[in-house]
Amino acid sequence: MEILIKSISDLAVQIEESGIRFYHNMASEAKDQKVKKVCEFLADQEIEHVKAFRKIGEQLPVKDTIDTLTGPMENNIKSLIDIFKKSALDLEAYSKKSLTTRESIDVAIQLEEKAIKMYEKMSAILMDDVKDVIDNIIDEEKTHLQMLINVKSKAKFD
Fold it and tell me: Between the N and C ends of the chain, which has fewer C-beta atoms within 10 Å?
């Protein structure tokens, strides 16, 4: 099972790296200084998440493969991997689109909500020492979501 969790941590790194690019793009396009500062902060937070997920991946021994798993655990892990892959692709696609600041914030809100759900599922299948790290990231993602909601309500859009 550990190899699958390592795959999930690798996918989480990809998602967070895509998030860094997305928030940097948002910051560079934003005319409102509040939006710009929030996006720069979020990009920095995603950098920290990359470090955390890489550390998780390094801590996990590689023992089992997908072929050695059966039953509900196999289905849960395969499903989670599929969700992570789709989220990574979605984030990359949004990073390349030309969006208004308001649209970018809306997308960022949706992506943060998805990240919270994904990481909650990830946390549910991890061992306790790694689970604590994921739970901290979930709390940070919830803070990010609230920041985006707040900046959306206060920002001046074109």
Answer: C
